User: Fold this.
Amino acid sequence: MLTSFKDDSKDRKRRFLRGLNAMLGCEDLEDKDIPLGRAIQVSIGELRNRLANVYCLEFTQAELRKLAREGVKTGEFTEKYCPVIYESRSEVDINALLRNTGFEQTHAVDLSKLQRVPKYGLNGSEWCDVSEGPCSCGAWHK
Assistant:
């Protein structure tokens, strides 16, 4: 079971770690002490694509290989890159999310667009698509 991250009152790092571990192919989604090199169960190219498509984090394959060789652990990766996605996207709530799916023009949610929006992490078995407020994962993020 995960011991909480320091300075994570909004539960952001835990959700980011769960999503990262899911992308890596790890069975224990809350283990923050797994070295990346041991955790990666997919190709480096696939991991690069997943990080880009889900978290909008851009890495080269060489950069990811270097992180894996250096023994960076999933918790350390989380500590460094979770704040990056929150800073780069600002606060996304349900209204911003709806704007990104074209709701204002059509007054209908395009679920295919909703599935493509950048994610913030994994809560339970559901991806979080907002940084605050009601989320499709079923929680209300603060």
